[in-house]
Design brief:
single chain; alpha/beta; DHBP synthase; 6 helices
């Protein structure tokens, strides 16, 4: 287990090696990994005790990082203004998934939940990694969300490969999750 009192580049090394990291998001600590590495995603799901069928969120520095996973052509023009006016920020949009998006990310759905973050450390991490991260709250499924790095270390110990030591983004609630096609709110 490594301590991140140094730059996120070491977290990037962990991600590139198929590791799972704990990192701060806008409101809570998250568990993350390389979305293209099936073994890493399966490890994250096992740590969290989350069924693959539920699907996962991807968090990115910019929309361009998400294009590989989203069927951009299915997003109506009138919906784009609403989506992009709320990014970067703590709004997660459920969008049509690209046909090539792996089921280990989408679960039972034909959609993918994505967010362009405004959290500076997460933006830097995604920039250095060159792509989005899987982003799910750092807790066991059904348990309270981890709000401090020390709680995360107590909860996950050596099962996590790297802990990013940076502050939360200051929001009091996890991201709102909305359907990009209908505007339906899944989590408010």
């Amino acid at each position: 287990m490594s301590e991140s009192t140094i730059s996120p580049a070491t977290a990037v090394d962990a991600l590139q090696q198929g590791g799972v990291i704990v990192y701060p998001t806008e409101a809570v600590f998250g568990l993350g990994c390389d979305p293209d590495n099936q073994a890493a995603v399966e490890k994250l799901l096992a740590i969290k005790q989350r069924p693959v069928e539920k699907g996962l969120i991807l968090i990115a520095d910019n929309y361009g990082q998400l294009l590989k996973y989203v069927d951009d052509a299915k997003l109506p023009l009138d919906k784009r203004a609403d989506i992009f006016s709320q990014w970067p920020g703590a709004i997660t949009w459920v969008m049509p998934a690209a046909k090539s998006t792996p089921k280990w990310l989408t679960g039972q759905f034909d959609s993918i939940a994505v967010r362009v973050t405004n959290h500076p450390e997460v933006k830097a991490l995604c920039q250095q990694f060159g792509k989005p991260l899987v982003s799910t709250s750092a807790n066991l499924t059904g348990q309270p969300t981890v709000m401090t790095l020390s709680q995360a270390k107590q909860e996950f110990a050596e099962r996590v490969d790297f802990y990013v030591d940076a502050p939360l983004g200051g929001n009091s609630q996890p991201s709102v999750i909305k359907d990009a096609m209908t505007g339906q709110i899944f989590r408010g």
